[in-house]
Design goal:
Oligomer: single chain
Radius of gyration: 18 Å
Strand content: 35-45%
Strand order of the largest sheet: 2-1-3-4-7-12-9-5
Number of domains: 1
Order of helices and strands: EEHEEHEEEEEEEEEEH
Shape: globular
């Protein structure tokens, strides 16, 4: 599955480039069917361009280890202590890898600037339990992630907090997120301070059934109170 998204338009079903075909996540047989692929992002401010591809795969509980994956801790930029080791045996593992494209992808110009952040949106508040990385899963990566944060409506991975940004032609280490909830597709974004955020769809935890029911009950109560008023 490959998606092409830009600030101005959406183009789907593009062929995978030779460079991206070498990355491990889209073709990993241990990932959940329908939740492995690549989303392309493009944006420009008229001077600089950001052309980024985000590979992804979601692994059912226990399958990240089966795939040969491990877990390395990263800094929590909210608490300034390391995230806990993800419970990969009992929770879903969401894996991402970012490439800042040095050549045209999807008919869009190559990047001319660095990438500073990847964001994964949530439809349920604080849907993730931990963030981490695996530097060995793709050992020839160029840049590791230095920190991340779990906020109310998103998880973020930083390439600028204490380390270097992701420069043109570079690809990141494998970025990891755990959640007890199964995947759906939600809005994600890539960011550079000079261009801003470019949005597209990436795998993200779906709300637990109980949370969805409670939300529906809440909406119903609000509607009933409004009718009575």
């Amino acid at each position: 599955m490959r998606r092409q998204l830009t600030i101005l338009a959406v183009v789907a079903c593009l062929p995978v480039s030779a460079a991206m075909a070498l990355r491990p996540l889209p073709s990993d047989p241990n990932g959940i069917a329908g939740f492995s692929g690549t989303t392309d992002f493009f944006g420009t401010n008229g001077t600089d361009s950001l052309n980024v591809s985000v590979d992804y795969a979601v692994f059912a509980p226990g399958q990240w280890t089966t795939a040969g994956g491990a877990w390395q801790q990263i800094l929590n930029d909210v608490t300034f202590s390391n995230f806990a080791v993800g419970d990969v045996a009992n929770e879903y593992v969401y894996a991402y890898q970012v490439t800042n494209n040095a050549t045209a992808v999807g008919g869009n110009a190559a990047s001319t600037t660095v990438l500073s952040q990847l964001n994964i949106g949530f439809s349920q508040n604080f849907a993730a339990t931990s963030l981490g990385k695996d530097d060995a899963f793709d050992a020839d990566h160029d840049v590791t992630v230095d920190s991340g944060g779990i906020l109310q409506q998103l998880a973020r991975f930083n390439f600028f907090f204490t380390g270097p940004a992701l420069d043109v032609g570079q690809h990141s280490t494998i970025l990891l997120m755990t959640s007890p909830n199964a995947p759906t597709f939600q809005q994600g974004s890539v960011k550079d301070s000079g261009i801003g955020s470019m949005t597209g769809t990436l795998p993200s935890p779906v709300p637990a059934p109980g949370a969805a029911v409670l939300a529906m009950i809440g909406v119903g109560l609000v509607g009933r109170l409004r009718r009575r008023a």
